[in-house]
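## tool: complex_structure
## caller: assistant
## args:
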Amino acid sequence: MKQVRLGLIGFGNVGQGLAQILAERAEEYARKFGLDLRIVAITDALKGSVYNADGLAPSALLEKITRDGNLVGIAQDDPGICEPGWDALDLVTHSNADVIVELSYTDLKTGEPAASYIEAALRSGKHTVTTNKGPVALHYARLQALAEQNGVKFGVEGSVMSGTPALRLGMELLAGAGVRKVQGILNGTTNFILTQMELGMDYTSALAEAQRLGYAEADPTGDVEGFDAAGKVVILARLLFGKTLRMDQVDRHGITQLTPLDIASATAAGERWKLIGTVECITGGIRASVCPQRLPISHPLAGVSGATNAACFTTDLLGEVTLIGPGAGRLATGYAVIEDILAIYR
Amino acid sequence: MKQVRLGLIGFGNVGQGLAQILAERAEEYARKFGLDLRIVAITDALKGSVYNADGLAPSALLEKITRDGNLVGIAQDDPGICEPGWDALDLVTHSNADVIVELSYTDLKTGEPAASYIEAALRSGKHTVTTNKGPVALHYARLQALAEQNGVKFGVEGSVMSGTPALRLGMELLAGAGVRKVQGILNGTTNFILTQMELGMDYTSALAEAQRLGYAEADPTGDVEGFDAAGKVVILARLLFGKTLRMDQVDRHGITQLTPLDIASATAAGERWKLIGTVECITGGIRASVCPQRLPISHPLAGVSGATNAACFTTDLLGEVTLIGPGAGRLATGYAVIEDILAIYR
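## result:
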């Protein structure tokens, strides 16, 4: 049995999802994979920091956060736990974690502060896993090189399609099949809105419904203007084709201009509008775009409805291979971390 | 660079597909994976046997087989090659192959002679890869145990959905996600026939069209009565859930009873008939079936048309994850062998 100690930077939805997975499945993972996964440290700018070199009980963490919204005072109930007042860099330096799980906040402009946390973790010689798009889209080449220099792994499965293993499918299982192009429904919010519009809503009502259900944020720009999908396109370009693109090199169009008439006209023609992210090898380079497209119903991405995501790989040897699954959710994204950890120790 | 020498038992469609892949991509694989893949030996009951300890040129093999339909006399052109008159067991015993690639003929009643060839290969301490359903459906537990005893790997990716990596997705990438059920379109021939029937053909004409295109055999029983899909269901039960089923434990129904009226009635209700293979964990065991089912258009398997295959995994952590891709074809099945070899040496 190999003990794998996890240090979490950030304890929001994904961190709590990870804790829930471990509360329910740590024994199964120990039995199946010979890995004893334990959260030993957490730091969260808003929720406090907590540490136990021997491991924190995930159920106790979840109970505390559900009751109080933070971890402050959790040490009172248990003398084995301390609340060291750590920030992210303290956690990297002072905890005994084998894997740093970076789940903090970031954006697609700088990738900070997540990128700096990841850099510190890799420099300290620890395996590092993130589910944040920003640092992967903007800094992957540099961070991966740093991981190699330090003899550790950098896991990023959750940065595209959450725990649906699109990156590992493309990078490992299809690695010898000659992948030429990837097209994806990479943003669940816009796909949900388009599905609602097919059911008869106009754009504004569909957006409001997405906001009501928590799929879209109060400022929906990142989703509806295609920035989120463009970040994932940049990640796919890097991981599948080894090409570094800037965000502004993605030919990006959102869904805000689509009218009920556009939707109806596609439906009448047996087609469906989808916001498609594409990365394609072309002579001398790569072409990347995010753009609403009318797909025939027979296209493997046309039937992907609601907040679901999908990636369709065009390959020399297998033709088209399509993977469909969730693109968000606390358990689905928490599972992306598990996948990366299993791959690190496989 | 690691040299990986392959010994092929059988040089039909799949073996030739594998040779074509290596003719075109061996250099790419060497560069990307550090593996120098070489075919050193081939034996085929009808096409002859050929051996070169340093490797046979795949292009020369393909040229000879295309010209003459066999490999007999190929040594005349090249003093490095010999035609040793080997059968499968000779190849296992006398060649210097590191991996035995078993691509001979077999059936779903005994799994022979493929199963015996695989057994001999594993006993001799060689990694073994097969794309044959029979030995995997009927003898996997025994053969896998033999592989473990001998410290080698037994690769079977090609036995379900050819090179579309459904088995590895379920067994590796989703291994920690709590897979509870798998539903699949596991037979391309019947899916092609059902698609043709939706376009207006009756069953007999659709079958004739499938036969004309080479999707269905002269005796189509194995496909249309669901035996082929049932074999794959047995394989999925074993590999994903660790349960050994006999073929007759699969509740099996074919598509021969479906009428144009059935098809039209489903279409009118916004549904589609698909031949669905299902393996499901239930309290105290497992339930396995192959059965035509009416799926709503919104189901991820409903949009899978023509000879394409698909598998939909129902998981605790990710909900439904669906993989769609080819289920047959010489390059697609040849690539399954490549995937297994890459996994052996990863």
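## assistant note: Chain A touches chain B through 45 residues (CB under 8 Å). The first strand of chain A starts at residue 2 and ends at 9. Handing back to user.
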